[in-house]
Each structure stands twice: as C-alpha cells, then as structure tokens.
Amino acid sequence: MKKSLFAPISLALVLTGFFHTTFAQEDTMKMMEPIVIYAKSNVNKAVTDAFEKRFKDAMDPQWYRMNKNYLVTFITGDMKNNALFKKNGRMVYHIRFGKENNLPEEIKTQVMSAYPDYNITRAVNVKMDNRDLWVVNLEGLKKWIIVRVEEGQLDEVENYNKAG
Fold first, then answer.
1. What share of the chain is helix, strand, coil (3-state, %, to 5)?
2. What CATH number does domain 2-161 carry, 3.40.830.10, 3.10.450.360, 3.30.450.20, 3.40.50.1820?
3. pLDDT confidence of 2, banded at 50, 70, 90?
4. Where is the signal peptide (predicted)?
C-alpha cells in the first residue's frame, strides 16, 4: 500500500524545487517516471462538482487532462495545490506545496527536534488513500535533507551534500 504513494510523492519532491544543480555528484542517477500532462481540458460536471464541494476556497483553478483523469492546479491561502480526479469525481490524491509556516505545529516540532541545526525550506502535504503525510525539505550548512512524517513516524528519505 505504501508504494502506491510513490508517484505523488515523487511529483511533490520534483515540484518543490529541491533538486538544485548545486548538489554533489553521485555515482548513480535516479530517474523518475515522466508524468505527461496534456493540454488544458474541459471537465465534466461530476468532477467539477466534486472539486467545488471539497475545495470551496480554491482560487484560479487550471484543469488538465492526464490520461483518463483530470489534474487541477489551484491556490488555497498561501499554498499551491494539485489534485487528481477520476472522471466519476473521485479524488485520487491532493498535494499541497508550502513552507515552514504551513506545517502543523506538532510536525514542525518533531522535525526541528530531530534536526535542530537545519532550516525548513519546503513542506509538502500528500493526501491519498486515507493517508496524510508531510514531506519536508531541510537545509543545513553542509547538507540538504528530505524527511517524511506520517502518523507520528519521522523517516529520513534522502540527504545530499552541498557542493563546495
């Protein structure tokens, strides 16, 4: 079941802008599957009704056809959002892109306790299949670290040495 979140989490990691060219070179390169987004799309009523019911405060929604599904990008408060809907209106996932101030206080405290010498640069929330997790990018003097927090469990996903 946890592998089903790989694509949205991968998308979240890429879209956060975390992968700078300043990372130290590694011996191997990890490639992610490309995500193909087609042209802007007209959306059926079941999908728009589901979206409007779930995201009443959404601003500037932009719809795209992605295979047989519909991807919508929009803003809520100070966070960018992506949500993927099936054509029957069922939401597949919702990803919110934010910063330190968007983290729930208990998660921020947990991350900062584990990494006191690091600053939080990005916070991404992924909701899918009744799961709710946060991917947090941290920057220290010599490293960048990516951690995941789900159900109180903090796991280090990646870490990179800074070049220079």
1. 25, 45, 35
2. 3.10.450.360
3. very low
4. 1-24
AA letter at 111:
V
Burial call 145-160: b when 16+ CB within 10 Å, e when fewer: bbbbbbeeebeeeeeb
Tokens coding 31: 């490639």
Tokens representing 77 are 């408060």
Q: What is the pLDDT of residues 69-121, one digit of tens each?
A: 999 999 999 999 999 999 999 999 999 999 999 999 999 999 999 999 999 99
User: What are the DSSP E strand ranges found in the chain?
Assistant: 59-66, 69-76, 79-85, 91-98, 119-128, 131-139, 143-150, 153-161
